[in-house]
Amino acid sequence: MAKTKILTLLQIVVAMTVVAVGTARAQVKDYPTRPIQVIVPFAGGSASDVVTRIMLQEMSKSLGQNFVVDNRPGAGGNTGTAAATRAAPDGYTLLMSTSGPLAANKTLFKALGYDPEKDLAPISLFAILPNVIVINSKLPPKTLTEFIAYAKAHPKELNYGSVGVGSSQHLAAAYFEQITGVQLTHVPYRNIAQYTPDFLSGQVPLGFQLLPNVLGMLKSGDARALAVTSDKRMTALPDVPTAAEAGVKNYETSAWLALLAPAGTPKPNVDRIYKALAEAVKDPTVKARLTEQGAEPVSPGPEELEKFMASETVKWRDIINKAGIPPM
């Protein structure tokens, strides 16, 4: 009798396991069957937010489901990124994150509350945003080499603005100081809206900015672009030389945007999202809209993103340590 009960229990367990496995497989096969939440660890309207929404809008067409953007700014992008690592790994919560929370912040912060290389499943890079070196048009320099000479003649007198310690704008400037030997003064802001009036007034007449943050001032003539920090000219600024063309060799820096999922997300779901992403960034309309925002669309894939994150972590660790930026 006892043996019969044991066999019956085993049969029930096996049946339940078969049903569970079948259900899980069906969920993966049919994925996605409902809207997908994407955590963006920066404020709505920021450059990264705008570029991400453009891409997601196109991805929703091929996936047949909408994306719901959840902006969770804070702690240099760490707050939203950490939240994504704690989400269920089922493909219905994704993360857009950047060079800060995924690489530089490992050195900039004493503790992140997550490990970007262990707690997240890479999907792909999708946009590279070079920094643009801009100055107030009232300043005398017309070229990058003239600016370097001017800055050396006025050590620590030139203020540059960023959206915070550890932002791509801050680190681009710190790296520029190391490469050129100039001494600048960092003025961090909580958001770009606070920086703009100080740039226009001349109090903070310098920036290593992302294009969307200064495009209006470039068009109005209030700002002058001296160089872009990529290895080739930006599509949106074809007349602005690269730093190398302007006389500063071996100086390349940019913000980059990537899509990821919580670690443990089923590979078929990751592959499905990547396929939609790759299709989206190749769409001519999407490419045009991204380049207008100063973003160069890319889609190298999960393995390449994993390697890139590791190399960027080492690069920025060395630059941050050399700059003497204390961990927060």
Query: Stretches where pLDDT falls below 50 for ≥5 residues?
Result: none
Using the coordinates shown, work out and report the CATH topology of the largest domain: D-Maltodextrin-Binding Protein, domain 2
The overall average pLDDT, rounded, is: 91
Q: Shape, please?
A: elongated
- What string, H for helix and E for strand, traces the elements in order? HEHEHEHEHEHEHEHEEHHEH
Full CATH superfamily name of the largest domain: Bordetella uptake gene, domain 1
End-to-end separation in angstroms reads 66 Å
Number of domains as seen in the coordinates: 2
Biggest sheet details: 10 strands, mixed
Structural notes for this entry:
This protein has 328 residues and is α/β, with parallel strands linked by helices. It has 2 domains: 35-129 and 254-323, D-Maltodextrin-Binding Protein, domain 2, CATH 3.40.190.150; 130-228, D-Maltodextrin-Binding Protein, domain 2, CATH 3.40.190. 47% of the residues lie in helices and 19% in strands. It has 11 helices and 10 strands. The relative contact order is 0.18.
Defining key terms:
11 helices; 10 strands; 328 residues; D-Maltodextrin-Binding Protein, domain 2; 19% strand; 47% helix; 10-stranded mixed β-sheet; 2 domains; alpha/beta
How are the elements arranged and paired?
Elements: H1 2-30, E1 36-40, H2 47-63, E2 67-71, H3 78-85, E3 93-98, H4 99-108, E4 120-136, H5 144-153, E5 159-162, H6 168-180, E6 185-188, H7 192-201, E7 206-210, H8 211-220, E8 223-228, E9 254-262, H9 267-282, H10 284-292, E10 296-297, H11 302-323
Parallel strand pairs: 1-2, 1-3, 5-6, 5-7
Antiparallel strand pairs: 3-9, 4-7, 4-8, 4-9, 4-10
Helix pairs in contact: 2-9, 4-11, 6-11
